[in-house]
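Give me the 3D structure for TM2 domain-containing membrane protein YozV.
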Amino acid sequence: MTEHEHTASRGAWEHTYESSPAPAYPLTPRPDGPPAPLGAADGPVRVEAKNPVISLVASFFVPGLGSFLNGDTERGIVIFAAYVASWIGYALLVWVLVGFLFLPVALGIWGYGMYHAYRGAEAWNARHGVLV
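Predicted structure for TM2 domain-containing membrane protein YozV (132 residues):
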């Protein structure tokens, strides 16, 4: 059995690989070395504190915006989408008795968005060692 026939008999998912030849040039590090981590040469990195009140007010006007400002993008988008969906459900089903169930859901999501924005800003400050 030839090498090609042997490889074909193992199945289409298996392949034989040859090692690549050594590079023609020496792999030496650059004279200045890799870049230093951000702030390593200058001392500690200064970060601005997240203001929980600003996050709360932002989420008051646009649910999820405060979480988005705190860096929790996914949660902010989910809060906003759920809020919009609950209002759409309320508007579509308001003529049916079930439609009134969407109003408390929308208000609950709105309140949770403000709570999460406030607590998220406090948590961000704690993670980054910011004392407010």
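The CA atoms of residues 72 and 120 lie 8 Å apart. Let me know if you want a second pass.
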